[in-house]
From TrEMBL:
Protein name: Wall-associated kinase family protein
Domain Protein kinase: 456-737
Source organism per UniProt: Rhynchospora pubera
InterPro entries linked: EGF (IPR000742), EGF-like_Ca-bd_dom (IPR001881), EGF-type_Asp/Asn_hydroxyl_site (IPR000152), EGF_Ca-bd_CS (IPR018097), Kinase-like_dom_sf (IPR011009), NOTCH1_EGF-like (IPR049883), Prot_kinase_dom (IPR000719), Ser/Thr_kinase_AS (IPR008271)
Entry keywords, A to Z: ATP-binding, Disulfide bond, EGF-like domain, Glycoprotein, Kinase, Membrane, Nucleotide-binding, Repeat, Serine/threonine-protein kinase, Signal, Transferase, Transmembrane, Transmembrane helix
């Protein structure tokens, strides 16, 4: 014991790390554990009268019950212990069960065995015999039982109506129960009856279920003190039809929670002669109440001064119970003893000291501690200066921590920005800009971009696609289009600054100017000239009713766009490939002049397979099939994409139509099929069919067909495309002199200025935002 206690002490010492207060609590706790005499005394307090047996066969006999008239409160509570069995058994002194036999007729009183007694609930559990009706092979009653009587009339006992059930078991059985309720005489009693009729076959039986097939049950009326059980004598309920599997039928009263139906009760005579638990309620002062009984203290059953009296809820009489904080037998003098709550280690918190009081306890706190507001059994620190000092220290430390964290965060952020700036060739680009002040190209900081876009507020988004998102922002004194790209090829990071330097020198009337870039981020951001008058995609596919775009106007836009691309291919060194040619990247200014945009994004195009899928999502319907396979951008890739733009100008149909049948979704595929069968006329926009200039239209169609050749080497160059478009314009014999329509241009401009800028620019980088990895389209 000493070794074990020392181990406990060492363990507790390690937990509290030498805390003096907790060691004191441990000391008191050990004293309580080592001296449990007070608790034991309460638990071992007498439950019966002095000199009277307090148990029989393991069943406690608390007063008012007792063996012998001098040990019980009245003869109704007198019991006896039968020692003739291997194990002693406790019975009521008087028999309460009458069993009758039909062959020959006779009856027998059977002693009622007591299983346990509960004085706090006022309940006693007894064994109740099972009534049975069995047939032999000649379908004759085989000394069966019937008309049994469970009688507690004129006693303080009543059958518990909540837990007891009347139950009938069998497959060709009819039985009933007559319930007698209350009263000193037969005239004052009331009666009710319930029964069950069972017919079934073996296949329909289910274990554990008393649901009306082979087994049925019914509740008891409240206050029942006598029950008569009987079987129906009608020959239609004999077992002739079922005796091969059901020799007996049963009727019984039992505590339902203690019983589970089993099909063997049907197929065997296992229940014959057996007993099952029945729960009885009992009271003292059988025909009175607490208020009346208190007027006669000599006969008042609640003898302990620490007891309470409560009237029975099931009939006349009352019960006694110990008050809260006490336990024991309230029917004995000094029977209710104080409970020592301090014997429970969890009564107070680890800081509190427990003090037992009569019927309760309280917890005291050590010096420097106090009870919590909501719980008098919990202790908390009560050192106000310490609390104030601790709070001040926490605030100061928090402030210092936040300041240090902010400094380190800014330092790390600065290092990250510098790392990205260097990776993207920022120092080389910066030196070139300083040495050539006429470039007109600016390297913006991340902070400037964030301020311009209001921290990339979604309200400033004017377009988005597979390559990235475009924001409208105000930089210094002008509005710009800022493209925040999604991905970048890791292999091209170091060359990015050089590429920007080349792109910054592009100066062509039909190309949107690249104003600058931001290199302090993982994926560089590009800053373009802002064109507010909408895209070619919007003009073709979102025309207002009554607006007509003539073939001449379409030719001008096509030729200007082709010249811009030819300039990128042949007039810059090294050549620049656009990589994302589509109608959404051809803008129209206030003079309806075509301006090719987003030409710098091609240098960010990835070669990695996974990133490439994301990159091309915004360009479905325009991509060169060879580029789809090799991921290598060439000048002929732009030619193919421009061929699709020519088809849009001729047909006013989108490059990829997800609402069309699958075989007609790709405009290029539909066009090539139509050319094969000479049905190009069916695809043309109605606005140019009426111009009666099919020669020019067919030449444009033939040019588009050459651009869409599956082999890149067999496609024309952009310079050849631009020259061919110029020849086609000349076929129209100076269209500005013949077909120029000022009202048409005015209508287009009017539409651009009155249209919401955001909706126009939403096509800037994304015409296929609904495409979900549908990059392998037919050509």
């Amino acid at each position: 014991m000493a070794v074990m206690d020392e181990t406990k002490r060492n363990s507790l010492r390690r937990e509290v790390r030498g805390s003096y207060s907790l060691l004191v609590a441990l000391f008191h706790l050990l004293l309580l554990l080592l001296s449990p005499s007070k608790t034991k005394a309460a638990k071992s307090a007498n439950i019966s009268l002095p000199g009277c047996p307090d148990s029989c066969g393991g069943v406690a006999i608390p007063y008012p019950f007792g063996i012998g008239s001098n040990c019980s409160i009245s003869e109704d509570f007198e019991v006896f212990c039968n020692t003739t069995y291997n194990n002693d058994k406790l019975f009521f002194l008087y028999n309460h069960y009458l069993k009758t036999y039909s062959m020959p007729f006779q009856f027998q009183w059977i002693a009622t065995q007591i299983l346990n007694i509960n004085i706090s609930l006022g309940q006693v559990r007894v064994n109740g015999p099972i009534s049975s009706q069995c047939y032999n092979n000649n379908t004759k009653l085989d000394n069966s039982f019937g008309n049994d009587f469970f009688n507690f009339e004129s006693t303080p006992y009543r059958f518990n109506h909540e837990k007891n059930k009347f139950m009938v078991i069998g497959c060709n059985t009819a039985a009933s129960a007559t319930f007698l309720i209350g009263g000193k005489s037969p005239e004052s009693m009331t009666m009710s009856e319930a029964g069950c009729v069972l017919r079934c076959f073996l296949e329909s039986l289910t274990n554990g279920s008393c649901s009306g097939i082979g087994c049925c049950q019914t509740s008891l009326p409240k206050g029942t003190n006598s029950i008569r059980i009987s079987f129906d004598d009608d020959e239609s309920y004999n077992n002739n039809l079922v005796r091969n599997f059901n020799p007996c039928g049963y009727a019984l009263l039992l505590e339902a929670d203690e019983f589970e139906f089993d099909t063997r009760y049907i197929t065997t005579d296992e229940l014959t002669g057996q007993e099952r638990p029945v729960l009885l309620d009992w009271t003292v002062g059988r025909n009175t109440t607490c208020d009346v009984a208190r007027t006669k203290q000599s006969s008042f059953a609640c003898k302990s001064k620490n007891s309470n009296c409560s009237d029975s809820s099931t009939g006349p009489g009352y019960l006694c119970n110990c008050k809260d904080g006490y336990e024991g037998n309230p029917y004995l003098d000094e029977g209710c003893q104080d409970i020592d709550e301090c014997a429970n280690q969890n009564s107070c918190s680890n800081r509190g000291k427990c003090h037992n009081t009569p019927g309760g306890y309280y917890c005291s706190c050590p010096f420097g501690w106090r009870h919590t507001h909501n719980n008098s059994r919990q202790c908390e620190l009560n050192v106000v200066p310490l609390a104030i000092g601790t709070c001040a220290a926490i605030v100061l430390l928090s402030f210092l921590g936040i300041s240090i964290y902010a400094i380190l965060e800014r330092r790390d952020l600065s290092k990250i920005k510098e790392k990205y700036f260097q990776q993207h060739g920022g120092w080389i680009l910066l030196e070139k800009i300083k040495s050539n002040q006429e470039l007109g190209f600016t390297i913006f900081t991340k902070q400037q971009i964030e301020q311009a876009t209001n921290n990339f507020d979604s309200a400033n988004i004017v377009g988005h696609g597979g390559q990235g998102t475009v924001y409208k922002g105000t930089l210094r004194d002008h509005i710009a289009a800022i493209k925040k790209c999604n991905i970048v090829d890791e292999n091209k990071k170091k060359e990015f600054g050089k590429e920007m330097l080349i792109l910054s020198q592009i100066n062509h009337k039909n190309i949107v100017r690249l104003l600058g870039c931001c290199l302090e981020v993982e994926v560089p951001m590009l800053v373009y000239e802002f064109i507010p008058n909408g895209t070619l995609f919007h003009r073709i596919h979102n025309k207002k009713q009554g607006t007509c775009i003539s073939l001449a106007t379409r030719l001008i836009i096509a030729q200007e766009s082709a010249e811009a691309l030819a300039y990128l291919h042949f007039s810059t060194s090294p050549p620049i490939f656009h990589g994302d040619v589509k109608s959404a990247n051809i803008l129209l200014d206030q003079n309806c002049t075509a301006k090719v945009s987003d030409f710098g994004a091609s240098i960010l195009a990835p070669t990695d397979e996974a990133q490439f899928v994301t990159f091309v999502q915004g360009t479905c319907g325009y991509l060169d099939p060879e580029y789809m396979q090799s991921h290598q951008l060439t000048d002929k890739s732009d030619v193919y994409s421009f061929g699709v733009v020519l088809l849009e100008l001729l047909t006013s149909k989108p490059a990829l139509d997800f609402d069309a049948p699958e075989e007609e979704r790709s405009l290029s595929s539909r066009f090539l099929c139509a050319m094969e069968v000479n049905k190009m006329h069916d695809l043309l926009d109605n606005e140019i069919k009426c111009e009666d200039d099919m020669e020019a239209i067919m030449k444009i169609a033939e040019l588009a067909k050459e651009c869409l050749n599956m082999k890149g080497e067999e496609r024309p160059t952009m310079k050849e495309v631009a020259e061919e478009l110029d020849r086609i314009r000349k076929l129209k014999q100076h269209p500005w002199g013949v077909e120029y329509n000022p009202e048409e241009i005015e209508t287009l401009l009017e539409e651009g200025f009155h249209h919401n800028i955001k909706s126009e620019y939403s096509g800037y980088f994304n015409i296929d935002k609904e495409a979900e990895e549908s990059i392998a389209v037919g050509r």
